[in-house]
Amino acid sequence: MGRILRFILSFFIGKRIISIGTDYRPTTEDEEKYVKMMNDTKTMLIELKKAKIDSNSIFESLVEELNFALPRNGRFVELKKPEKDINERALLSDIIVGSDRYLYVELPEKADVNEFIDTIKNEGGEIVEKGPNEILARLISKNEAIKIAIKLIALGGEKNLNVRAAVGMTAAAAVERAIKLTNEVGEIPGVAFTKFGGEFALLFPSKISKIGETYSTHGNYLFLDVINSTKFIEKYGRDFLSLVMEKIKKRIEEREGKIEGYRKGGDDLVASMPTKDLALQAILEAIWESQVNDVKIRAGVGKTRKEAGENAYLSDDVKFWHPSSTVVFNLANGTYAYFIPSDFTRTLINFALNRKGEGILIFIFVFLMTFIGWQIGRWELGVIAIILSLIYALIT
To answer: Transmembrane residues, as ranges (predicted)?
Structure first.
C-alpha cells in the first residue's frame, strides 16, 4: 500500500516521493526519537532533480565537495558499483548519527608515526589510537578525512614511504576497507572510501609533486524563513514569532552553527554550519518542534549563502493544497527535499496506511472512474472520484 500511496501523492505534488516516514531501524534512544518523529509527522523525502549516480558523476561531485585541487597523478578507481538511487535510510543515518568519520592510516615500518600524527592534529583531526605503524583518527566529515589522507600520502612520498588509508563510519569499517584496498590494488599509496553505496579509491602510483590548493572558501550554510509570516504575526503577535525564532536559533547553535544577519523579531536568518548533515539535523528538529506552534518554514542548505537561499525558495514548488514546511538540499548532482505535510494530508496518509483494505478499494474505485472517464471523454469523473474518496476518508 505504501508504494501505491507514494505513486498517488507523487501525481498530485508533481514530484517523485522516495519515502514517507522512514524504514531506518534505530539502535539507540536518540535514533528512536528521530525515527518516531519522522514517522509521526510523515516526513517525505522528495526528488526535485534526480541525481545521476555513476563513477564519473561521483568523481565530479567529490572534486566539488572536497573544494580541493587533486594532484594530477591521482587515479580514481571504482571497487564496488554504487547504488543507482538515493537510499533514504543511508541519508537519514548520516543525519542522525552524524557525518564524522574514522580515518585508518597504514605506515611502513621505517616511518616516524609522530610526524604523521602531527599533520592530522594540525588539520583538526582527533587521534583515537596509534601504533608503531598505524594511526586511527576521527575527523569532522568524510571529505575532511579524504583531504587529510591525501596530505599524509604526499608526506610519505617525500620520504619514499608508501602510505595507505581508508575512511569508514566506524573504526572497524575503516580497517576493513584498508585491508580490501590492499587486496584489490596491492601496496599502491591511496585512500579508500564509500559514496552512495559504492566503494572507491584515490590512488597515487607516483610521488605527489604538489599538494592541492583550495579552490575557494565555500562552506555549509542554512537559510530559512517563516512562510506567510505576516498572517502569523496578525494572528499570534510578533512577540510569539520572536519566541519561535529564538527556539530555532537554539537548535542551530546546539549544532555549532553560527547565526548571521538575524534581527530580533525577524522572520528569517542565515547560519553557517560545520557540515551539511548538522544543518539538516538542526533544521529538521526545528521544523518538527515548530509544528505545534502553527509555524511553517521554508529552508535551504547549500555551499554558499546564495545557494542555500535559492534552495529554500525551490520549496515553493513543493506543495499539495498549500505550502508546508520544507527543507531543500543537494545530493551529488541532484536536488532533494524533506517535506513535512500538513495535518490534513497526514490524516489522509494515516487512513491509507492504517486501513489498507478500504484504501485499496478506494484506489481501485478512483482508477476505474478515471479510466472510464478517459474512455468516454469525461475526464472529470476521475476528479469527482478523488473528491468523494477524500470526503469519505475525512468523515470516517
So the answer is: 356-373, 379-395
- Here the cell at position 221 is 550554510
SS3 306: helix
pLDDT tens for 167-180 read 999 999 999 999 99
The tens digit of pLDDT for each residue in 231-258 reads 999 998 999 999 999 999 999 999 889 9
Q: Where are the strands (E) in the chain, listed by range?
A: 16-20, 44-49, 75-80, 101-106, 126-130, 134-139, 164-168, 190-195, 198-203, 220-226, 258-260, 268-273, 297-302, 326-331, 334-339
DSSP at 81: P
What is the grid cell recorded at 354?
492504517
The torsion angles phi and psi of 220, rounded to 5 degrees, stand at -130, 120
Domain covering 2-50+216-345, topology: Alpha-Beta Plaits (3.30.70)
- Asked if CATH classification 2.40.50.140 holds for the domain at 68-203, the reply, yes or no, is no
- Counting runs of H as helices and runs of E as strands, what totals does the chain give? 14, 15
